[in-house]
Amino acid sequence: MKKKMFKRAGVAVLSMAMLLSMGAVGAISASAYGTGYGGLTLNSTASEIKAYKVAEFTGGAWSWVTGIDTVTSSDMNTVTASGTADDAAALKTIADKLAKDSHLGSGTTLNATSENELPAGYYLIVSKGAGKIYQNKLVEVKANEGKTLNNDKASPITVNKTITGVETNKGGVISSTDNKKASAQNGATITYQIVTDIPTYSSQATIANMADYMIVDDYDDTFTDVAISSVVIDSTTPTNLTQVTTEDGIAGAENAGKYYYSAANIAEGNKGFTIKINKKSILDNGGKHVTVTFTAKLNTDARSNYEYPNDVDFTYDNTFNATGGTDTLESDAKVYSVPIEVFKYHDVSGQETAITSGDAVFKLKNTTTNVEYQENTNANGKAIFTSLPAGTYELTETTPPAGYKKIDTTITLVVTVGTDGSVNVTESGTPLTKDGIYFQRKVENTPQESLPGTGGMGTIMFTVGGAAIVLCAGFMFVIYMRKRRAEEE
Fold first, then answer.
1. What is the pLDDT of residues 169-190, one digit of tens each?
2. Mapping DSSP to helix (H, G, I), strand (E, B) and coil, where does residue 136 land?
3. Number of C-alpha atoms within 13 angstroms, CB side, residue 123?
4. CA-wise closest residue to 211 among 296, 283, 145, 259
5. pTM over 0.70, yes/no
């Protein structure tokens, strides 16, 4: 009897222990976070992630944290009522306004490799990383719940230089597959555009520690008459844009509260310009684009390098915090121009000999643009076309050298610039050979035939023969008349 009672008591104790144990597990599970706290896990490549508590639920309603004044109650209604993809743009706008609020405080640095415990509320998440612009985000952290934030939207900071216009009445052609390439003739005006980003910096970034923000354009020395048309931040043209003409002027302008640029890089002559936007303006315009538009005239000489580059270097602060640091990005756009020579010659004992007795005149007509190019042959019998854009051309001879026939056919030449920048000139699919730096088309001369009246032997024969016929006719006429009179008598 006592043994049974002992077993029953043991079972009761064991059952109580199991219940207590289950209760304890339940208590541990319920208190995985501190009272009023939740968890936030981030999947991000950012090097610095800050969380700023911007709203809390008190008195049965949501309200912005005391002191924050860049947002309104209407913004709060938008945040708490959101829940569809259509709300994304509105939430981004609110997050960007909050990111500029001076009352955010220092925020909490988050870890991207493990869960972060935060007091319940709405948080502004600001991410930074070298070479990228991250989108500001709003996220709700609920008490006793964990949340994972995925798809950390980020776009790389870039600089892109393109060709947006070429003077068409001078044969300008922009590549249909790559607006970083164009071809044009000598004297054509090219329009370039540079687009780059202003990074969004953290609240710790200060003017004193920031690196300079500069766009430095360096173009080939065949470009002249360079003129900056506009410098625009997003869709706004700065009204306080000021031009300076010396390197000292740029250096002294960095904290003057204005946008500055130089029309020429003094150290390199007229081969470039520098645009430097002051640091306060950079801090105020994070996440926006800078667009620079300028024009330049192509003044080429015949040369073996048909490529006329136009490069830009963009330097900016890439650490987004108080320590400072720089990074430089590059982009280029190229204009191509092609030299062709027409060699007019005659054959002397199997040798190609240039005609030097007089100028021949050749004409090239672009069949697409109808632009015509005309050149005379020189003392070496060559008509030099130094600067031609891509296109199909009809070659004709308008005036031959003295004593020679002009060609009676139209020669079709095709000038191409490949996507890799290679330059070629072909006729019926066959590449022209080159004479030094020129693509050469040879044209053989045919001498004109001698005509009567030029003093040759043929003239004497015709003269003597003609006189003989006249004398013979006269003699026959005299005989005829005498015979007739004799008959009449």
1. 766 778 777 788 888 888 889 9
2. coil
3. 27
4. 283
5. no
